[in-house]
Amino acid sequence: MIRARGFTLVELVAALTLFALLTAIAFGIMGSATRAAASGERLADSVERVRVAQEFLRRQIALALPLAFASDPTSGAPVIFEGDSRELRFVAQMPGHLGEGGPRRQLIRLEQDGREMALVFRHLPLHPAEEDSRIEDTEPVVLLAGIRDGGFRYRGLDGAAEPGEWRDRWEESAQPPVWVELQLELDPEVHRTIWPPLLIALQIDGVPGGAFLFGPAPGGVDFGPRPPTGGGER
């Protein structure tokens, strides 16, 4: 009679140990893949939020209109553009897909949001019926949260029609600056990316940067040689 030989206890324990080890390795690989995918999604989401915020700011500020939204209480001069390190105010059209027709008063501000800051946007119609309304009381649209620090800077032309110094406050409210810059420090625990430098040339006579359409502009952008002055060569 031939007896069937079974597994010994040692062989069974070894097989179970090997199975458990392979299972742990498989779950570890799956966990790493899941975490990598989640991290990739968070990075993509963070990059997209920053990109959308920059595109919106670039469009709205660049297309600021030379329309007064207030008057100086002392001189009575029209106020076309106001700005400091934390906020700026101007008039511009809204993007067509938002369905807000006509020029609107606009406020872009860095506001405290708990321990950090958020970049928010508010707007009101530029209409006599709304002239007594406070734009600060309107519902804010959060463009980007999770900001540690940052601020706006402004640059215009000096008396010789050359780029002036960067300033944290724009005081010539009867005219807009030529360039606006926004620098932000993002919270790395909220965002998986940095805030790329944002330099915006305002449209002057339909031209970005106005007088600096030709030649280098601040930020290293070169639009080509300047046209001849004084009627050109004779």
Structural class: alpha+beta
| Biggest sheet descriptor | 7 strands, antiparallel
Largest beta sheet: strand ordering: 3-4-5-6-7-8-9
Morphology: elongated
What is the count of helical runs? 1
Distance between the termini: 122 Å
Integer average pLDDT: 80
Strand content: 25-35%
Radius of gyration in whole Å, from Cα? 29 Å
Low-confidence stretches: 210-234
The H/E string reads HEEEEEEEEEEEEE
Q: How many distinct beta strands? A: 13
Q: Helical content, roughly?
A: 10-25%
Counting structural domains, the number is 1
Tell me what the structure shows.
- The chain has 234 residues and is of the alpha+beta class.
- It has one domain (43-213).
- The chain has one helix at residues 9-62, and strands spanning 70-71, 78-79, 82-83, 87-93, 103-113, 116-125, 141-155, 179-186, 198-201, 203-204, 207-208, 216-217, 221-222.
- The chain has a 7-stranded antiparallel beta sheet, with helices on one face. Strands 1-2 form a two-stranded antiparallel sheet.
- β12 and β13 (221-222) form a beta hairpin.
- The longest helix has 54 residues, at 9-62.
- Residues 210-234 have low confidence and may be disordered.
Summarize the structure.
The protein has 234 residues and is an alpha+beta fold. The chain is built from one helix and 13 strands, in the order H-E-E-E-E-E-E-E-E-E-E-E-E-E.
Name some characteristics of this structure.
single chain, 234 residues, alpha+beta, two-stranded antiparallel ribbon, 1 helix
